[in-house]
Amino acid sequence: MAGSFKIPDNLIARTIEKFWSSFVMLMTVVSWSAGSGNYWRFSWRAANYGGGSFLLTYLIWLAIVALPMCIAEYSIGKIGRGGPIHGPYNFSERNKKLAAFGGMWMAWCDFMIMCYYWVVNGWIFYYLLHSIIGTFWTPGFNSMIFWQSFGETPLALGIGSAMMALSIVVNAFGIKGIGQVCRFMFPILFMLTLGLAIFTTTLPGAIKGLEFYMVPRIEALLDPATWMQSLSQVLWSVGIAWGFMICAGAWMRRNDDLTFASFGNIVNDTAVAWLAGTAIIPLIFAISANPYEDIKAAGTGLAFVTLPQLLRHMSWPLGQVYAVVFFLAFWFAAFTSLITIHEITMRPLKDFGLKTHLAAVITGVLAIVVGAPTALSHTWLDYYDTVWGVVGLSIGLVFIGLIVGFWSNPARIREKVMDMDIKPFIKLGKWWDILVRANIVIPMIFFSWWIVYWEWIKGWGEGAYTYYTFPGFLMLAIGAVMLWFFVSKAIEKELKVTGRS
Amino acid sequence: MSAFPFKWWLILAVCMIGTLVWLLIVYWSAGRDVSIKQEKPFE
Question: Which of A115, A122, A327, B24 is deepest in the core (most CB within 10 A)?
Answer without folding.
Answer: A115
